Amino acid sequence: MRNVIVTEYQPQWIDMFETEARHLRRVFNDELLDIHHFGSTSVPGLKAKPIIDILPVVKDIQLVDQFNDEMITLGYEPMGEYGIHRRRYFRKGKDNRTHHIHVFDQTSQDDIVRHLAVRDYLRTHPLKAKEYGDLKQQLAHLHPTNMEAYINGKDQFVKDLEQKAVIWYKTKK
Fold it and tell me: Sheet harboring 52-58: ordered strands across?
């Protein structure tokens, strides 16, 4: 059972992303088109679970499985699609999770935009970021050992945020 831990923003999360991105660039090499830090740890000032979310964009999602052994060597557990079609998901740290890797290929623009839109929206809307961080902290206090209750508690907020963020993101492009 994993504890639900939400902390104040930590500037070292940027360095943790950059370090891991360097490793991932070596693993995916020519297959990699881009790599993004997203999720709460990518938003300065936002309270977050201290897990770095990384979104590599690759040419062909079907080729990602051939990198599983290299990802295992880096400490990752390959999880396949893990509930999202045409994604490859890797997690690192077992019960003390440190990183989540969400690999999409260039044809999965809706998924890519969805993740980047929320990140950029929260970066430019500090009051919404504070509201989200406060909700996460409150839920972590209410459900310190129940990750499912924590996730369910923020589900509607995240859906509403995502919808608003995607509309905002597309209008600013």
Answer: 32-38, 52-58, 99-105, 87-92, 76-78
